[in-house]
# Entry
Amino acid sequence: MILDRKHELERKLFRQFAEMEFTKELQDRLDETGEFDWDMHRKMARYGFMGVRIPREFGGAGGDYLSYALMIEEFARMDAALSIYANTSNSLGGGPLMMAGTQEQKEKYLPPIASGEKIMVFALTEPGAGSDAGGTTTTAVEDGDGFVLNGRKTFVSGAPMADWCLVFAKTDPTARGSRGISMFVVDLHLPGVSLGASEKKMGINGYPTCDVVMEDVRVPKDCLVGPLHKGFSIAMKTLDGGRLGMAAQAVGIAQSCLDESVAYAKERKQFGQPIGNFQGISFMIAEMATEIEAARQLVYHAAELKDAGKDATMACSMAKFYAAEAANRCAYKAVQIHGGYGYSRDYKVERLYRDARITSIYEGTSQIQEVVIAGQLLKKTGGR
Ligand code: COS
# Structure
């Protein structure tokens, strides 16, 4: 796919912003401290990045999935954690509201998240319900003019900084599996809500993650998003788009692995010549570049399908599956090319190796993407 002029210009803008603002000092600090950088959050918000995909009438830029994917790719090329800053509002946080919210809910929640004033996060995973997202045990019981929620959500990315959280809870205890689950906006400042300690993670350190615990949390009826008992398909549809974003992130990380490796292979000399002259190194570079381009095309194709309103579930899972695995292979090769230096924190590839690892885990492991792809193929005839 060749980008049109509009998307090419957008890519340039995202790249310039990331290259200028995501300084090495900032990247190292975030990785070292694991803290969220509010100044960068506000700066991204001023540029309108939080609302790239949010419709104009709700304070966003009204952009398409391709613009969103380009932004995440370019930001992740500089720093994977910082790419998530502009991801949540456009994806797992804002996505379900754009898809299933009422006009009132859209008016209430979308403008403040598009402006960066508030942060909305997404809580599906539980200690006992990871890949089996339908195994949700958090409950929401109708009580008078509202619902009472109880349960624990885990690995909620962005929860330490968030104001609101989209919580998936079982509202029909008699329904089996993923049936009878509903989605609620929960104000994280409500009585009964508590947050766990921030996780000590392998990578993506500048974007904190923690548990959200709810004990008899009372929310009004208008916090229900989408139809009662029908929350699971909204979660799945949201994850289609989320997986596209994380696939774009994986492409960005992989591209950075390539950038670093090409530069190093030209500059590092062994046996009297640049190591890029050796086939052992140059072939790894060729393999990386080819895989990255293939992953990128899968991402852009999935984005195009979504923008055209076509069924993109399988395409999003293919993009996520391939790009995440490719990013891991590229990170391995990048460290290998750098040798002992690649194992040192003084070189960016050490962090890229750690950041790449999560891409084949979050928003559905690679194996879950395979389940989705195979499920789509086997339910259809002919596959396409
Ligand atoms: N879009 C819309 N609806 C979908 C959908 C999609 N992409 N995928 C599934 N659904 C619907 C199905 O149509 C079905 O609806 P009905 O109950 O009306 O028939 C329902 O959701 C259940 O589907 P399914 O039977 O396939 O669900 P399973 O419990 O077998 O789970 C997987 C399917 C494993 C794919 C799902 O649990 C999953 O994606 N797990 C990974 C979760 C994840 O990514 N977690 C990451 C953390 S979130 S940051």
Observations:
- The CA atoms of residues 41 and 99 lie 25 Å apart.
